[in-house]
Amino acid sequence: MSIELALRRFRAVLSARNKEFMRDRTALGWSFLFPVLVVAGFAFAFSGEPPAEYKVGVIGAVPAAGAPAFYATRHIDFIPMPAPAGAVTKVERHQLDMLVDPATRSYWINDSSPKGYLLERILRGSGGGDYRKQTVSGRAVRYVDWVIPGILAMNMMFGALYGVGYVIVRYRKNGVLKRLKATPLNAVEFLAAQLASRLWLLLTVATLVYAGTDLFIGFTMNGRYLDLAVVFLLGATSLLGLGLVIAARISNEEVADGLVSFIGWPMMFLSGVWFSLEGLHPWLQQLALALPLTHFINAARAIMIDGAGLAEVAPDLAVLGAMSIAFLALGAWLFRWEQA
Fold first, then answer.
1. Is 81 helix (H, G, I), strand (E, B) or coil?
2. String of b and e for 74-101 (b: at least 16 CB within 10 Å)?
3. pTM of the predicted protein model
4. CA dihedral over 163, 245, 333, 180, signed as positive or negative
5. What is the pLDDT of residues 171-199, one digit of tens each?
6. What span, in angstroms and rounded, lies between the C-alpha atoms of 130 and 135?
7. 254: which of 2, 5, 14, 27 fits an S-S bond (Cβ 3.0–4.6 Å)?
């Protein structure tokens, strides 16, 4: 009898949950719409030939007839470069896997890059045996040094989008916002407290993660920590503002989760967290410049790896500042205590 009652209770709860979900048209529709949009977006972005596995910068024009067979190797993206000076820096920073100068028959690779090692073997085995190897100037940047600004920024992005966007939606759904509306608290005070609470948490976590992992890995830091803190502050503020825009009207957690994923995951792939955007289709690079995470990572990498100061990263800071103001203003204007 107890087993029969348990099964009956299980079926009742299962049926109630299914009906609740099916009657929520917004969540139901988003469950189908979200994967379709993601598939359509990636299909459009990466249609045609698959992206090349290797990126080789070529000083001047890419040699054609009569050149070593290396230049006809498939799955290598040969990118013309105007001069060696800036291109060598891209090799140091893993933005290029190799740099070749056909005129002087020389090449550059980063000794810590596995792709650079493979390309060197391919070059020497496909007609480029007489090419001279040049060492990159200064200390070669390890991949971990290159990727750590992106990881810290990505972690702050998800913390901001979920910490503000998702939480406010949950408050609205649970009726917390409705009760707060009846108090003397106004919307500006409530939103300011939410943003400030999440901001100091994001900065504290990023600082502790960086300091803790730096003890074991010893990251490259050629700039000033104060400048990096300014970048983190502006980057986190812009991402918190974006989270506020998401949460301004929605009262459904499933929809909020889907929107955060829909915005967060493409932004992570297109902002250069894990790999360089060098060689991507030009319109994808332009699209990346419309994302706050791109400017956040660019500025942090410039300070940590290149030793840049605030003046050098001022264009990225200006974009982050403008996005912060725009997102916060739009989110505050759209905000409602209750479901519209």
1. strand
2. eebbbbebeebeebbbbbbbbbbbbbbb
3. 0.72
4. negative
5. 888 888 888 888 888 888 888 888 888 89
6. 16
7. 27
